[in-house]
Design brief:
There is one protein chain. The protein is α+β, with helices and mostly antiparallel strands and 685 residues long. Strands 20, 21, 22, 23, 30 and 31 form a 6-stranded antiparallel sheet that branches. Strands 15-19-18-17-16 form a 5-stranded antiparallel sheet, covered by helices on one side. A 4-stranded mixed sheet has the order 8-9-11-10. Helix 6 packs parallel to helix 16.
Length: 685
Amino acid sequence: MNATPQARAPLSSADASAAGGSPILVHGTNDLPAITPDVPTSTIKNGEYVLNFDNVDIRDVLKTVLTDMLGINYVVDPVIQGTISLRTAKPLSRAAVLPAFEEALKLAGAALVPGSSGYQVVPIASAAQRGAIGVAGNSLGPGYQVRLVPLRYVTAPDVQRVLDPLVPPGTVIPAAASNASLITLAGTASDVDRAERAIAMFDVNWLRSQSFGLFPLRYSSAASVAEGLNSVIGKQGPLAGAVRIVPIAHLNAILVVSKNYAHVEEMRTWVERFDRGRNVLKPRLFVYYVQNGRARDLASVLTKALSQSRGGNTSAATSSPSAPTTDDISPATDSPQPSMPNASGLNSPLANSSGGGSGAVPASLITPIGSTTMSTPDGPGNDASTALTDLRITADEPNNALLIMTTPERYAQVESALVRLDAAPLQVMLEASIAEVDLNDGFRYGVQVSLEKGAFSALSSAVAATALGPSTGGLSAALLRSDIKATLDFLSNYTTVRVISAPKLMVLNNRTASLQVGDQVPIATSSSVSNITPNAPTVNSIQMYDTGIILRVTPRVNRNGRVLMDIAQEVSQSVPTTTSTLNSPTIQQRRVATSVVVEDGQTVAIGGLIKDSRARDRTGLPWLKDVPGVGPLFGTSDDRTDRTELLVLIQPHVIRNAASAEAATDELSAKLPMLHDSFRAPRRP
């Protein structure tokens, strides 16, 4: 009788002694522990959390942070795609995890919107329409939200002008003219909280009868101008105690507060005088710290533009501008700061565009190693040499800064161009799928025509009517109302769909992203034989050629958020040559190029590259079916024609980065109460 072995627990010492040396058989089972992919998890120690995500899919991070760590329910918009990198240098408390995670989501173009039973993860562009609405002093907790803040002592337009440099763009929604006592904020909880704190600084009783102005500086530091203004006011003068001057270093601006609006206007004139300084026609050295580009590129482009606008050409030299004296160097903030939006309707501020420090610029900055000096050529007959002899631009590559030797008046022109050229670059996340679709009876005219006639209604008829036509090799382009996954799922219900590649990659605006799936094939370009040496071998020149699927996409984002994509696609394969005696394959190519404009998050489909392949299958009795003459008696032949269409689906997502101004808000928060005390108890002679 055969007994079925039974699984049992591991042996104990008691089992071993009872067996008396007899063998014990333990039957193994197939219940192996499941192997799960490595998904980043948080580390929790003593109630604190450590986050460590490096280029991880956003959906995995959402599950780890919201579900596994915090136990929060959430729903993800299908449009949300991409990766997140987030590392915490120090452990976070539970209350700090979600705000930190919101900042990472913001960089990925997503936002958390509070819902009735959890959070919705939606694109940041549509978060304001879905966000919860709250009122001042009643926080809704983390998540994208809209908050209404009533004002008691100041008007909404006045507060908005002060808030613009302190909060990310778009946080303050412009107030209606009929409701100047209510201001609307939109953004993440941290951005809205910071804006509400700034409003509380200015919406106070002691400022109700006060006028104030925030004046950004161009050429001088806030500390030096404030010192000059205080010397003008004097301790015993008529304005003593009536005007208060507050330097805001993080904005490189001056805050002027006075009960009399005429005094604020008068201080504005003095601010402009001190900002220009002495010897306004004498060249001075300015330092502009490049924030988003490369100093060398900006120097080359800017100098060439200024030279050509005056009929001259640009030249590059290795010399540097002669070292100015201390009086010729424009003071600036101690460290480079990001430029802030205009808050008062005056000149655009640029805190990082002036010279460095309160003393002379170090010689290492004036003549840095690896820098490039751009200047206009001197010489008779050159109109530009006369107009631009007072302008020299040096790229300091180690510090990614521009040293500009020119007059304050001309520097204003250069600065205006630099502010636009040095804008924060947008990024575009491209989600693409390249698939081969079998063209069966239902798709014999191609994918586009079949989709138009089907119930899916995926294609916009207006766009589908603008197919590029036969001149482009049968290419057709159309916009889809659905996302990539939904389109492929629909097609797979009716025919065979093989996804060749499904890349997701991030690319800078106006830069080209490339994808290549295929092989390099050696191609013989020429053949030669020596006529001098007998029996010389034939020497072939070989060149490697890329084959397969090659896709290049260049996105260009306009002001309205639409994405213009220049798309170049090539499908090639090597086949035995029939047109040459060279022992080298022939490259069959299908190459197309097009440009399309889509909305952020909209899918564009490119098809029309149809391939026909013919094959003959023989079946029958082995050997006999291949005998010439009598083979057809012992087998059958089946001629088969396969038609496939290459379908490319591309969906762009624009990623925008919002700069934070937490330091400027903290500085204002610290200085305004001191200013209140000085008004409440003014010193009298």
